[in-house]
Amino acid sequence: MKVIITGTSSGIGKAIAAHYLNKGVSVIGIGRRHTIDHTNYQPVVCDLTDENAIRELAVEEWVSTEILLINNAGMLGTVKRLSDQNEPDINQVLALNVVAPALLMNRLARACGDKTALTVVNISSGAAKRAIPSWSAYCASKAALEMLSETFYLEELEKGRTTKVYCVAPGVVDTPMQAQIRSVDQVDFAASATFHDYYKSGELVSPELVAQKLNRLLEMPYSGVVSYSLRSIE
Ligand SMILES: NC(=O)c1ccc[n+]([C@@H]2O[C@H](COP(=O)([O-])OP(=O)(O)OC[C@H]3O[C@@H](n4cnc5c(N)ncnc54)[C@H](OP(=O)(O)O)[C@@H]3O)[C@@H](O)[C@H]2O)c1
């Protein structure tokens, strides 16, 4: 098996990459920065907001008998009410959180054809199903990622393929993204205190636990359910 993960420089993506490398699995990491040094780790430098750069990735060379694609790279964007933003960065957020996963699913599914077993994991968020004021672009992007995943799964079924598709909310995880959330002033983000409380009371889960729970989910028999919260996985 080969694992392809986006956004491995920090947080959840880095922990998932380490999890598979420790198991002796080869990992291809796609992102702007690389912080993993391992013989079985192949760093691929790519800004995933750049569609042309994604189109130029040599995905055909990565195909082996079994591929696990994990679309993890994501950004919150500006944490501010939409009407208070001078220059909304919705294009950037959608490019990274929705367009990049869609293009990678497209390219990998085509490269894998009917011969390679493909599993896709898209890292979603509770914000896909719950509107959080000041996160408009992020909530919209994760909701879109859920539908993209559900639709892709049904399309693969229609083609008679056994592609497994998951869209997984990891919970509240101790990563740089949470640090960014805590850095925003309450004036711009009404739920600020809640996220400071999660942190102070030790409610954030570690990225390593997320990697373990994801592995447990992937080892369960595939049921055709696409959307999961890792909170429900022991
Ligand atoms: N932490 C949480 O509580 C939480 C909760 C729900 C969902 N999530 C989701 O979990 C995923 C991982 O987030 P995280 O919490 O681990 O945050 P993180 O530590 O900030 O990781 C984000 C990753 O995405 C990469 N990235 C950002 N912009 C990129 C770009 N333009 N091109 C390529 N890579 C880019 C970052 O790399 P560089 O910046 O180094 O390029 C980094 O590796 C995201 O999809 C996020 O929405 C997180």
What report would you give on this structure?
The protein has helices at residues 11-22, 51-55, 90-112, 136-158, 176-182, 192-200, 207-219, and strands spanning 2-6, 26-31, 41-45, 66-71, 117-123, 164-169, 227-229. By secondary structure, it is α/β, with parallel strands linked by helices. The chain has a single domain, classed as 3-Layer(aba) Sandwich (Rossmann fold). The chain has a seven-stranded parallel sheet with strand order 3-2-1-4-5-6-7, with helices on both faces. 36% of the residues are buried. It binds NADP nicotinamide-adenine-dinucleotide phosphate. NADP nicotinamide-adenine-dinucleotide phosphate binds at residues 7-13, 31-33, 47-49, 72-75, 96, 123, 125, 170, 172-173, 175-178. NADP nicotinamide-adenine-dinucleotide phosphate binds next to helix 1 and helix 5.
